[in-house]
Amino acid sequence: MTATLPATVKLTYREAMRAAIREALQRDERVFLMGEDVGRYGGCFAVSQGLLAEFGPERVRDTPLSEDTFVGAGIGAALAGMRPIVEIMTVNFSLLALDQIMNNAATLLHMSGGQFNVPLVIRMTTGAGRQLAAQHSHSLEGWFAHIPGLKILVPATLEDARGMLWPALQDPDPVLIFENGRLYTLEGELPAEPPPVDIAHAAVRRPGDDLTLITYGGTLGTALAAADRLAAEGIDAEVIDLRVLRPLDDATVLASVARTHRAVIVDEGWRSGGLSAEVSARIMEGAFYDLDAPVARVCSAEVPMPYPYHLEQAALPQPDTVAAAARALIGAAHG
Amino acid sequence: MAEFRMPSLGADMETGKLAQWLVKPGDRVARGDIVAVVETQKGAIDVEIFEGGVVQQILVPEGSEVPVGTPLALVDGAVPSASAPPVAAAPSLPGTPAPSAAASPAAVPAPAAPVPAAPRVRASPAARRLAAELAVDLATVRGTRLDGAVTLDDVRAAAAAKAPAPAPAPVPAAEDRAAAMRAAIAAAMSRSKREIPHYYLGTKIDLKRALDWLEAENRKRPITERLLPAVLLLKAVALAVREVPETNGFWVDGAFRPSTPVHLGVAISLPHGGLVAPAIHDADGLSLDALMAALRDVVERARVGRLRSSEVTDPTITVTNLGEQGVGTVYGVIYPPQVALVGFGAVVERPWAVGGLLGVRPIVSATLSADHRASVGHRGARFLAAIDRLLQEPEKL
Q1: Is the complex ipTM higher than 0.90?
Q2: Is A67 marked active-site?
Q3: pTM of the complete model
């Protein structure tokens, strides 16, 4: 018997997502993809390029610009036994479908007394940083994390982009996947046969002892870059990728804070009433006596996302601002 | 958040050594629980807490000697005490601690001005917890956070900088303790004779009826439940106090503060010449059996040095009985800030005329030493007469 190293392939986040959709279409004939420009155009972010040719118009369906309608159609298809993947171009436009998502997808299991699951997956792009201005750049995933009945996934790595879709389709209830637009060009290597990932737990992306940076999605890279800067100064930051915004994996966060005694939450969403506030509150509830400093937050500026590059960058969490918040928590004891 | 402070356990106690903590942070305590042992000149005293709650933080480690009034621990959930810390409340009278004020508000009215709370130390929750575990006083730790708050590292540094943990308090040699106690007695008695204008009254009381009744009563009881004559005397004193309240209470800050409860101090001599007079609380309301049990309990504990703080601080009047030594008459010295002391001599058989006939009767000499600032001789006389009258009806005691 000869042991062989698993072959790896080099690919982008976009390609990892596409591979996940292709795998799902191959493995389960109930799966189909629909959304604006997912077919002939290959997806607004080119995620579904080539899939129409490979799987045909029955399974890769272009829809009109009518989010409320096609999300509703996806819910109906799910109720009828299909496993739809609905793509919404950006989270900003998902607001047109919010009634379907919240009042139907999230509630039908409850309102039918447990008779009707809605096994629907909705993918959408989120986040700023590409000069797409205020109507295409917001991070509203924290809003959706407010809604009981939904599961909210935020793949921030190639592994999760490749691995989260299949378990999401296996979930009997609606799952929303938020893909930060900056990540599509992220490139790296993955095993040709990627290992399965779970959609229940946060992940420690960088172990450390001095403080915990808690983040997800598009700002995972920001937090890791900040941790590198801090390491150069002798501050050993742990970085937690939440991965799942609902239900939140409190245990991983609390265990880390209990060890490091300090936490900075990095969230591309707005600060007021946002996901960062929720995480902060849970730390207060679960780890108050372990804290050696107030929980700090680095969020996007509370403005509509600016179009000019310098203003957009100034509005977003940056490695420098995260590192500064971390230093303030450590205090003078570390110089 | 309430502070549990080093109580004043004697008229001239200025400092106390925290010998042992019987609680730790997180423990729930109720009013009256014994939470610590304090080493004083009068031996180890079990100190009770007067406000319930949860112990948040131990501020003074075992082995530390601190002034009266020093916060020893923080207790949460307690109703904040309106009374000032003992030292502030009565600087001229360390013998009247706040705990006693809390126990009997009538005895020592709380001062009008509330004491402003000390500014809360800025410290992280984790630093507070560690400080409690390491017995580091946060108030003494310099905070290095940008906002000046105390952090975990600050507490660790402070703990490391502290002198090596104080060695367990060495048990003082018996001679040392005796000498210390002698010094305490000397201070209290000197103050008494210096400040208190004593007057003395004496009478002789026929105990025939009382002792006959006691003998008959004891015959009905197993040996272990028999009553001592001293119990009748104590109960008679406690009831007489009700009739002449000027004998019961404290002279504080130039005024007499009567006490409604009667906490009878019982003078107990100790080996090596020591003397303590712990209180039997609410003695006027106790049955003879209960009083007997209380007396036995307090004597046993006094002899082994395990009195409770409230027993040491609460007496409102003291009784000393030197009859065992065969002494005829006691001329006692009042224990400040109390205002009266009752002395009994030996019960002796004497020729006694009753109704024109001479007989032999058991006679005891009863004396009252009283503070003339608080009462006058006329009232003192009535007090002794009341004791006599009460002892003639022992079945009603």
Answers
A1: no
A2: yes
A3: 0.55
